[in-house]
Amino acid sequence: MLTVPGSDHMSISAVQTWVEVARMPLTYTVGPVVRTIDTTSDLVVDAALSYDPEELLSSKGYVYDWKCTYEVTLPLDASKINVANCKKATSSGTGYGGSPDRANDGNNAAGLYNSMSCAHSGGEANPWWMVDLGTQYSIVRVVVYNRVDCCSDRLSPGNIHAGNSPVLVNNPIVGRILNFAGLMYELSVSGVLAQYAGTDCEIMLGCLVQTAPNGERQFTPSLLTHERPPGIIANVSVDVTAGLFPTASLYQTIHVVPDETLLDLYLDCVENCNQYSTIAAWPLVLNTSSEIQGTIDYTLEEYPDGHPAENWTSVIEVSGSALLVPSAVFVDVGHYTIRLTDTVGPWQKISEWRFQVLPNPAQSQAGDDEGETTGGDPESLSGMCTLLPPEGTALIDKFCVTCKEFLDVLGPLETQVSFELKPLAEIATVTFPGDGPPTKNEIILNSFNGWVGYTNLFDVSSGIVILHVRIGSPDGRFVEFDLEPALIKAPTMAQLQGYLDGFIAYPTGTFFRQIRQGEPHTAFLGSVIASYVASHMAVIGEDITEGVDKMASGLSELDIEDMETANGVTLSLIMLTAAPEMVSGNAQVLSANLLSASLETTRELSTNITEMPTVEVNKAAALMFTG
After folding, report:
1. Among 253, 409, 415, which Cα is nearest to 339's?
2. What order do you get walking across the sheet with 216-220 strand by strand?
3. For residue 228, which of 205, 261, 249, 253 has the smallest C-alpha distance?
4. First to last CA, the chain
5. How far apart are CA 505 and CA 482, in angstroms?
6. Is the Cβ–Cβ distance between 229 and 12 less than 8 Å?
7. Residue 193 has what pLDDT?
8. What is the pLDDT of residue 200?
């Protein structure tokens, strides 16, 4: 519904628009694809590290389907492995809190019932207890621990069954308990079941913690009656289903140290950490918080065909245990794996980070194959976008950019249009805290950001203008290029004055209306361009004194309380006062007060380095001292 108060008629124009709404893909991870663990610590494989970048899907929307396999790499005495640990136990009844799982939880507590180490029946006739091993094993030994604080004779006489039937008494009797009064009863059997299946990680890595958070697989070896065997290599995999998104398959390969004196090794990512789409234009930083016991080395174990892997060591930086890979190293599309090795005497501990580099957005290739893309260097891409109109007058004519179709593997693309202003005055340089090169200061005006192949209308400055276009994906990949230079005429003095009267007049001008509507970026974009056009006209001999007075007077009505306002005002004054002989005394006073207020706001905000980084402080200060 549309109402127009105070009007007796209105006109509405409508067009039909097709809009596609697409979700950003989820980011899936369990951390490194390979890690090393010791023989005693708890192991957590955390698929809940996966997340929704748009934060629309809660943790309850994720479903995890776990699997685990292992292989033995060192000699292993299988007779010392307790395959009953932590398996599903049932009984004919329960009494006095003695749940059936207490009988195989790895805790015998010297047979003391109050230590919660014993199962207890419910007083029924012919009681029984049973454990489901989950798969077939070749059983060679059965060990039963008794209660010794009292009632030690209750297990006698008893039968021990073993077999494949879920009904206990249908399984053959492999042993009998007679006159059992001590703590432990051991029965030797010979191959009751013929098959040994190595698919159960719990007996090798540790009992599963049933109370672990959703998305975590936690193994604790402290509940095992045997040690976590050295040299085991386990593969923990998980299928993650989140909402209506396609299921993602993740894995982590676990190496148990070959020697009990060795500690864990876990390689983690610090920067540029999306393993499904690592950005080639950003640096990659990896590090480990694990204790380094020997000599470390980073190697590139996997890379796409054609990638110059031999250049790897000449570009990386290793500081302590941290690895920095500069931007533009992993530019080839495909999978990469970086390995961290800690060599301790004859042993090696390893951990690996695997990631994928996706192709950058590409121009659509005309032809029969819809969706096919082709690459292109910036020069060949410049013709993909067009400035409309191709020429015109600054401040008087509005311009837009329209682009042909670009495609990306993740779907929607963002168009960004910007151009650089070269002020007549040389911009000051600032370095803080003073031990590095000066911060580079460029005045880049961002005219448009949007998820369409065309822009809304915007102003450009007079002179030769080169527009810069960036086509970017939601995860940060992009392709960028310049349009052909456009010659934009300067307005006449009458046109400039008329424009400023409608733009900067307080409080009804376009500038102040945009500020009130919450569009300060648009307002200051117009202010900077208008000031630049005025200075351009001064260079060609026009008297802009009146225009400078109008701009300075209008800007003086602002409250400078944030950096966007401080920077916008400062940039406008840099452009506006480039011809000092055309700045009246009143305009000088107003400009000085504005710069003083901007500097004070910058000083206050710069005390919090997390909100205003040093490089931003340097840029702001350089502009203000120039002004």
Report:
1. 253
2. 43-46, 216-220, 207-208
3. 205
4. 48
5. 35
6. no
7. 53
8. 59
For residue 586 the two structure tokens come to 């009143």
Q: Which residue has the tokens 């694809």?
A: 33
Residues 534 and 551 sit within 8 Å (Cβ to Cβ): yes
Tokens of 567: 């920077």
What is the C-alpha to C-alpha distance for residues 361 and 478, in angstroms, rounded to an integer? 6
Q: Please report the pLDDT score of residue 72 as a whole number.
A: 77
Cα 53 versus chain centre, distance: 8
Q: Can you tell me the distance from the alpha carbon of 422 to that of 415, in angstroms, rounded to the nearest whole number?
A: 24
Tokens 């934009």 locate to: 488
**What was the pLDDT predicted at 6?**
45
Two structure tokens written together for 113: 């019932």
Q: Strand locations in 451-501, DSSP E?
A: 463-465, 468-472, 478-482, 486-489
Neighbour count for residue 279 (Cβ, 10 Å): 19
- The CA-based angle 9-458-450, given to 5 degrees, is 95
Residue indicated by tokens 């570009």: 315
How many CA atoms lie within 13 Å of 508's alpha carbon, on the beta-carbon side?
2
Q: Which two tokens stand for residue 275?
A: 């393993």
All domains of the chain in start order, with CATH: 84-188 (2.60.120.260), 378-626 (no CATH)
Query: Using an 8 Å Cβ cutoff, are 439 and 615 in contact?
Result: yes
Crossing angle (nearest 10°) for helices 545-555 and 585-605: 40
* Contact call for residues 431 and 439 (beta carbons, < 8 A): yes
pLDDT at residue number 251: 93
What are the structure tokens assigned to 61, written together? 């929307």
Site of tokens 């055309």:
582
Taking residue 351's Cβ as centre, other Cβ atoms within 10 Å add up to 25
Bridge partners of residue 437, in order along the sequence: none
d(CA 534, CA 545): 9
CA distance 303 to 336: 4
Helix axes 520-539, 563-576, angle to 10 degrees: 10
**SS3 readout for 398-446:** CEEEEECCEECCCCCCEEEEEEEECCCCCCCCCCCCCCCCCCCCCEEEE
DSSP secondary structure string, 1-21? ----TT-S-------------
Q: What is the mean pLDDT of each run of 10 residues along the chain (627 residues)?
A: 46 48 80 94 92 83 88 73 79 85 76 79 80 78 81 77 79 74 73 41 80 88 77 91 90 92 95 92 95 95 91 90 94 95 95 95 62 50 89 92 90 89 62 60 80 87 91 89 92 94 94 94 92 89 92 94 89 84 91 88 74 60 54
- Cα–Cα distance, 524 to 530 (Å, whole number): 10
| 365 CB-near residues (< 8 Å, 6+ apart) | 372, 373, 374
Nearest Cα to 160, choosing from 144, 146, 183? 144
